[in-house]
Every structure is written in structure tokens, then in C-alpha cells.
UniProtKB/TrEMBL annotation:
UniProt superkingdom: Eukaryota
Main location: membrane
Keyword DNA-binding on entry: no
Similarity remark: Belongs to the potassium channel KCNE family.
Alphabetic keyword roster: Cell membrane, Ion channel, Ion transport, Membrane, Potassium, Potassium channel, Potassium transport, Transmembrane, Transmembrane helix, Transport, Voltage-gated channel
Membrane topology: Single-pass membrane protein; Single-pass type I membrane protein
InterPro entries listed in its UniProt record: K_chnl_KCNE (IPR000369), K_chnl_volt-dep_bsu_KCNE2 (IPR005425)
Protein name per its UniProtKB record: Potassium voltage-gated channel subfamily E member 2
Compartments where located: Apical cell membrane; Cell membrane
Pfam short name (any one): ISK_Channel
Residue stretches spanning the membrane: 49-69
Length: 109
């Protein structure tokens, strides 16, 4: 089993060296003008990425805040004369009154 682990490690190191050498030789073949151009393009693209991310995060934040505000406003404007809400309110108030009476008069039962 250790032979396979050593083989795997050896192959991994060999592939890393080949890839690193290839990438280093690829960059060595660039002229100064190409290097300056690629550096400038990389910097400009990075700036564009930052702006893009800022705009996307801003739009996402605006949408989330709008959804939250509209949800809070709709909850605040619930119709108190809605039969379902009146039923819940009456049911809870009746249960609360019964519990208070039971707690005040425990000997009455």
C-alpha cells in the first residue's frame, strides 16, 4: 500500500513540476510590450469586476430591503375586521381570561 502512496506522491510532484515549468516558460516568452499590455488589461478587468460586484450587491440589497419593508407594512395593515383574525383574537382573549380566573380562584374548582 505504501508503494502506491509513494507512486501517487511521485506522480503528483512530477505533474506539478511539468506544469510549473510550462507556465514559467510561457511567461518568459512574452515581450515587454505584451507584458505591459497584459498587466494593464488585468488591472482594468479587476477594476471592472469590483464595479460589477458593487452594483450587483447594491441591487440585491435594495431588493431585499424592499421586500422586508413591504412585508412589515403589509403585516401592520392587517384588517382587524377580518373574520379569521377576529376569531383568533376572541379565542385567545377568552382563553387568557379563563386562565386568569383559574389562577385567582384556585379553590373554586
Amino acid at each position: 500500500m505504501s508503494d502506491f502512496a509513494n507512486l501517487t506522491q511521485t506522480l503528483e510532484d512530477a505533474f506539478k513540476k511539468v506544469f510549473t515549468n510550462y507556465m514559467n516558460s510561457w511567461h518568459m516568452n512574452e515581450t515587454k510590450a505584451e507584458k505591459a499590455l497584459s498587466d494593464r488589461l488585468a488591472a482594468e478587468n479587476f477594476n471592472n469586476v469590483v464595479w460589477y460586484l458593487m452594483v450587483m450587491i447594491g441591487m440585491f440589497s435594495f431588493i431585499i430591503v424592499a421586500i422586508l419593508v413591504s412585508t412589515v407594512k403589509s403585516k401592520r395593515r392587517e384588517h382587524s375586521d377580518d373574520p379569521y383574525h377576529r376569531y383568533i383574537e376572541e379565542d385567545w382573549t377568552a382563553k387568557l381570561k379563563n386562565q386568569i380566573l383559574i389562577m385567582e380562584n384556585p379553590m373554586a374548582n
